[in-house]
């Protein structure tokens, strides 16, 4: 067997001596110094406890991801997350049932008077949806629906046909309207877009974002509304199978112009929301609410959401808030 060259052995010995000296100076063993660096994220010590979260379906997917990532950094912290609507989240937080309420709407004055403390964390939007096999689906995509027609079916309770909606009198299938049964930010935001409150919305009442989406998927002549991440598929970025996201004819001219066209994919509508091309409402900020200014693990979690947690916002299908709004929220917490 051929022996290694003397020069090679000298070089290896020298390298070991250098690593030994370096290890002595930094206070670690030479064996540890020779091991490759680990890529596992640093874990903060000392933070422990349980953080209970409930509320808006709109924030639920984002909160689940935030909770998972935060617990990786703080293994002694447990975060329990449940959905049930913005109204439930606010009631639970102000009543001390949970530490954080997810609220997908503006905070009500009475909630503030009860000691509500809140920070905005992301932005998304409510979108009108119809069944993908709707008899006038192509016309809906090309023409859109103006606010006055949405108001006619949801607020005034008019019995319209889909032919009435798109100007085709030969189509006589009746529009079947769905709304939410739970007190929620999506319904309140959609009602605000129509100049009303959630209790003013007419239609078959269905519980939760998933429930409303499923109701429209099962009804060829149905129309409803969903939060962004329940209208679009997380993997493909396309509208959820069985749903047609209905374009809003913002200027009411009977056609969807290039400036109004943003519904083919989740990424397109997100850009429209971020730029303001999609109206607000139904676009809006999503908030996290506590009873009084939070302390301990809850406060640290909220600060992390506004800082490190923002790196997960885009991939989760939400829109990051402007930097100045995030910084104002951080100052409010500190």
Q: What can you tell me about this protein's structure?
A:
This protein has helices at residues 6-26, 30-34, 60-73, 86-94, 109-113, 137-143, 147-154, 162-166, 185-193, 209-218, 228-231, 266-275, 296-306, 323-333, and strands at 49-55, 77-83, 100-103, 116-131, 176-180, 204-206, 222-227, 243-245, 283-291. The protein is an alpha/beta fold and 334 residues long. Strands 1, 2, 3, 4, 5, 6, 7, 8 and 9 form a 9-stranded mixed beta sheet that branches. Strand 1, helix 3 and strand 2 (77-83) form a beta-alpha-beta unit. Helix 13 (296-306) runs antiparallel to helix 14.
Mean pLDDT score, rounded?
Answer: 89
Number of domains: 2
From the alpha-carbon coordinates, what is the Rg to the nearest angstrom? 26 Å
Shape: elongated
- The CATH class of the largest domain turns out to be Alpha Beta
Order of helices and strands: HHEHEHEHEHHHEHEHEHEHEHH
| Low-pLDDT residue spans | 1-43
Identify the CATH architecture of the largest domain: 3-Layer(aba) Sandwich
CATH topology of the largest domain: D-Maltodextrin-Binding Protein, domain 2
State the end-to-end CA separation: 69 Å
With helices defined by DSSP (H or I, 4 residues minimum), what is the helix count? 14
Describe the structure using short key phrases.
334 residues; alpha/beta; D-Maltodextrin-Binding Protein, domain 2; 9-stranded mixed beta sheet; 39% helix; elongated
Summary, kept brief:
With 334 residues, the chain is an alpha/beta fold. It has helices spanning 6-26, 30-34, 60-73, 86-94, 109-113, 137-143, 147-154, 162-166, 185-193, 209-218, 228-231, 266-275, 296-306, 323-333; strands at residues 49-55, 77-83, 100-103, 116-131, 176-180, 204-206, 222-227, 243-245, 283-291.
